[in-house]
Every structure is written in structure tokens, then in C-alpha cells.
Amino acid sequence: MFEQTIVLLSSATDFAVVCQACESGGLGFGEERSSLVRGQLGLVHDLAWTECERGHRIRAVRAGRDVHVEMTSSLW
User: How far is Cα 61 from Cα 46, in angstroms, rounded to an integer?
Assistant: First the structure.
């Protein structure tokens, strides 16, 4: 199981990232469904979650902010 986390700069609100779980399983860009995931993290928020089309969860956190340990638990 993959635990995927991306860190956004303080002014970023939108992101696009490649799902590493899909890529490592050979489910990448050459197939019908892409491994590219898009998401948003509001400026006042420190944490957001998104999923790829295959259901792999990806956590987005804001750089320079405190993220509580329960937010980073692998027990999603």
C-alpha cells in the first residue's frame, strides 16, 4: 500500500500530480485512464485529500504549517 503525500507552497491552491501507486503498478498514461490527479487546497486550509480514478488516496499538506499527527496517520 502506498502512502502518498504532496506538499504545497503557501500560495498554491490547485495542484496536479502523478499517482505513484498507479505508476508503480504499470497503470500509467498509456492506458484509457490517466494516473494524473488534480486537486485543490484552499489558502486557509492545511490539509486536503484527493483520489485518483482507481481510488488511491493522496494527501496534500501546506508547507510551513503544523500538521497534526492524526492527519498523517496511515489509518485513512
Answer: 6
Q: Which long-range contacts (CB under 8 A, 24 or more apart) does 60-69 make?
A: 60/5, 60/6, 60/7, 60/8, 60/15, 61/5, 61/6, 61/7, 61/8, 62/7, 62/8, 62/10, 63/7, 63/8, 63/9, 63/10, 64/10
Domain count, the chain: 1
Residue range(s) defining the domain that contains residue 36? 4-72
Report residue 10's pLDDT band, with 50, 70 and 90 as the boundaries.
Answer: confident
> Residue 4 is placed in which grid cell?
502518498
> Three-class SS of residue 40?
strand
